[in-house]
Amino acid sequence: MAERLLTSRFNPRFYGRRKGRPLRVHRTRLMRELLPHILVKEASCIDVSKETWLEIGFGGGEHIAEMAEQHPDIQLIGCEVFENGIASLLQHIEGKNLQNILIYPEDVREFLKNLPSACLNKVFIMFPDPWPKKKHQKRRLVNRNFLDDVLRILKPEDAELRFASDNEDYVKEALALVKDTGFFPDIILYDQKPADWPLTSYNQKAIQAGMNSWYLKAQNRKSHRRACSGFTCLDNLDTFAG
Hints:
The chain is of the alpha/beta class. The protein has one domain (about 25-240): 3-Layer(aba) Sandwich (Rossmann fold), CATH 3.40.50.150. The protein has 9 helices and 7 strands, in the order ααβαβαβαβαβαβαβα. The protein has helices at about 25-35, 35-40, 60-70, 85-95, 110-115, 145-155, 170-180, 200-210, 235-240, and strands spanning about 50-55, 75-80, 100-105, 120-125, 160-165, 185-190, 215-220. It has a 7-stranded mixed beta sheet with strand order 3-2-1-4-5-7-6, with helices on both faces. Helix 1 packs across helix 4 and helix 3 packs parallel to helix 4. The model is unreliable at about 225-230 (pLDDT under 50).
């Protein structure tokens, strides 16, 4: 097992890899020299008086890095346990000279429980592991208990949750769970990537392979939906979920 970057007494069963191939020299240096300066050791250390967005499982870091570049006044927190993904994001941060990203390198479930209530404006969950085999679906990150923790930390007004997946069954499950919370009066599902959603390397591979992907946006502000231009907006959510 890969060495953990933080110690924790929180110990629910964790599924997934913590480490892949050995890091190259440059990324090893970034882990040693850059990460300590932006490492979040405890949720209580974060200044949530400023607008803050959270990405859960940032993979290679393309999405959160582009968001940080586009929104330099927003504080972004990335949660990821996979060491190679963390090193990849560090390379994006160095290359783009980003000053507004923090990294929590442990189980996000602990992190969510220790954040204060109503402190985040946006949460992104981009292409989490779908665990497609039926016997493994209980391992999926998005379930009702997890969503309850997410809703607790989202602000009661002007908050947004984004979820994307290329697994139709997982999308239907997530859609049903989000609808059942009653927290979001405005839920939109797209079957093509909206222009303001940064492209991840995983998503790019799925598109090149001809795989379908779905993009769920849930908002708790009562505003008119933007016109669905250049992609299909699946307004009949009940039909899709069925």
